[in-house]
Amino acid sequence: MDTLDKYLIRELIIYFVLVLIGISALAVGIDFLSKFWSAGIPFGRAMEIYLYKIPKATQQFVPVAALMATLLVLSTMSRSNEILALYASGVSPVRIVSTFIAAIATLSTVTFLLFDPLLPLFEQKKNQLEAGKSGAEVAKFQADGSRYGFWYRSNDLIYHVGTFNPKTNTLQDLDLYFLGPEFQILKKIRAKEAKFEDGDWSILDGVMVEYPLENPFPKSESFKEIRDIIRENPSDYQTVEIEETTMRLRDLRKFIERSHRYGVDMTVQRVSYHERVAHVFSPLIFVLLGLSFSLSPFKNQSPAKGVALSFLLVFVYLILSKMSLSVGRGGRIPPMVAAWLPNMLFLGLAGVKLVKK
User: N or C: which end of the chain has fewer CB within 10 A?
Assistant: First the structure.
């Protein structure tokens, strides 16, 4: 890394951090002022909720910060004739482009590795605070990792779990329904508890009710323990969240694959998954777009023009993204195409303009 690389990377990082902090704080602040007065919640809880919103806002604005930082750096260098001096000394545009791409690729990777495990935790806490839980209740929920009141389907078995405790590997307040080929209930089990022991679930202290097809009267019997009913492992219940925003990317993929095997339509979740993957690469697309518009040796660029151009490009990108994702969630186009279409269009635009330069 020579002096030019160090200079470009330093300037890019400075602008990137300042812009990211500024627009994230502005977005959260505007959201707070517009919703707090009508929310009807205590000021302390509102502040706590919005503190948990900051990481998501920061992660969402990484591509915008990359674009604005690129335009601001190059427009400033162009105004001071630094771009012209670089060209005159034999530095090619490819050299400048490669430095910016390497720097933003590193920043994008770091932000993904940082936010992917953290955002689900903050989203869970925010959702629980919005649902009326106190800070102490939220901390307790996060500490033990329990899950409450969820349904689960496994082939021809559907069951409701009152509480899942991952520390003790126990399920409490179970209702299990065995379905026939025409989705009629063949058998029902009601049990107080199930424990995971020796690689299998032991269902304890319950009642089994059978509904024979040839007999209109059900048969019931009590039991102390039965096994070989529930096939899932305790880890499978870690991704039963119905909101994909509270899952890590890999957990969301596993959740989609498992639900698809059970016949559940996961089109919306697939679009969300590919949208999050595409978002990781969006900063690179935005940087190429910024370079294609501002990599000029002439004094025709200014920081004000760079900011205005950034907002215009982001506005167009958001419109395309919303339209594409809506069509994808409706099943009109494949989920991957819906998520990646805006990136591909902007990448094509950036490529055409860079080639012309």
Answer: N
